Amino acid sequence: MPEEMSPRQRVRLALDHKEPDRVPVTLGGSANHLTEQRYQLLRDHFGVTDIPRRTLVGFYTTPDYNPILDHLGTDFRFIHIRPPEGFISNSMIGPFEEFTDEWGLHHRIIGGYYDLAGSPLGEDLTIEKIEKFPWPDPTRPERMQGVKDEVEDLYFNTGYSIVAHRPVYGNLWELTRWLAGMENALMMTILDTKIFDYLIGKLSEVLDGFYYEFLSVVGPYIDVVELAEDLGTNNGPMFNPEVYTRFIKPRHKKTIEMIKKLAPNAKVMLHCDGAVRRFIPDLIEAGFEILNPIEAHLPGMDPVGLKKDFGQDLVFQGGVDIKNVLNHGSVEDVRREVRLRIEQMGEGGGYILAPAHNFGNDIPLENMLEFFKAGQELGRYPLK
User: Fold this and answer.
1) I need a surface site. Which of 57, 124, 134, 240 has the fewest CB within 10 A?
2) Are 180 and 200 a contacting pair, CB within 8 Å?
3) Strand order of the sheet with strand 315-317?
């Protein structure tokens, strides 16, 4: 059995498709967050104190997880870009202050869930309108305040693997459907590909600016860079996969080439919900190396098949059922599910243990605790 490794050593071997001492375990990245109620439950269980700063995790903020991550024994720590001036860092518990952000999207609560509204490019979209849109400026200095000191402290004073959390809400398709609206976005992929291509190109320029500014500071220290691009539904692709191949894939490839120059030791992760198997060969060709969150109950997302067909090229992160097991199962059910995923995807490295999506309010404390305990106990190599 391998000797006990530092989290950074463990993660790097797993990312290189080699077997470390055990399967790495994560909490805090894309599709791997806690609701604020679950955070408070864990915080109070461990008796830790809140860090005053809230953390930007896309289109909303969360408490800083680090105090509970230390108790849970996870292997990753996350570095985050800072919110721009005017961003309201609302708590999800208590009063919520609605506001419109720098993308023109309105932040609100609907039915207890965070919601973005507005579709500022949703009406009569033209090339001129795209050019005149007040695009966010990635170079605003407040975005990187304190980031260099924080990442260097993590790198030099801890043994954790460091992840560059995605610095924007989502990537090209995600922002297209937010800015133009879902119906308009889907219609463009069929009826107005010229406008779609132009908008995707403009978004690529702006988003590359965010990654450039962020990775110019944190690039030398990180093991993983996150992107987010939900391409699937519960049944299959959200749109014709040829649209991805023709319009989005070349931009993803260009972005990943830039990322690799700024973060030469990092692997590039894509958070991509849904039944996305048909996209996977293109995602690999674009340069993605980690796929998250692996919703194993969906068509084509069987972990055994994914590992067999794509395990040489992709690291898989996620897969532990939140629909029935983590929320409604017993502690023993959670332990069996963790064991199953590790056995299905952990052989030869190339697997990071994580839930198949965020920990919601329906997941009891004992099941969350068992998830991490089981991962550390059952993920020891050799697995058989």
Assistant:
1) 124
2) no
3) 76-79, 161-164, 224-228, 267-271, 290-292, 315-317, 351-352
Residue 106 pairs with which residues in a beta bridge? 100, 117
The tens digit of pLDDT for each residue in 333-366 reads 999 999 999 999 999 999 999 999 999 999 999 9
Half-sphere exposure of 10 (CA within 13 A, CB side): 28
- Classify residue 200 by burial, with Cβ atoms within 10 Å: 0-12, 13-18, 19+: buried
The DSSP 8-state label assigned to residue 258 in this structure reads H
Q: What is the pLDDT, as a whole number, of residue 53?
A: 93
Residues of the chain with pLDDT under 70: 1-2
Cα–Cα distances (Å) from 225 to 131, 212, 286, in that order, read 29, 12, 15
Burial of 143 (0-12, 13-18, 19+ CB in 10 A): buried
- pLDDT for the residue 1: 47
The pTM of the whole model exceeds 0.90: yes
Q: Give all strands (DSSP E) within 42-138, no chain letters.
A: 54-56, 61-63, 76-79, 99-100, 106-110, 113-117
pLDDT recorded at residue 2: 57
pLDDT of residue 94: 87
Which CATH code for domain 7-87+119-378? 3.20.20.210
Contact (Cβ atoms closer than 8 angstroms) between residue 268 and residue 225:
yes
* Tokens 């990312």, located at residue: 15
In the chain, where the domains are located:
7-87+119-378
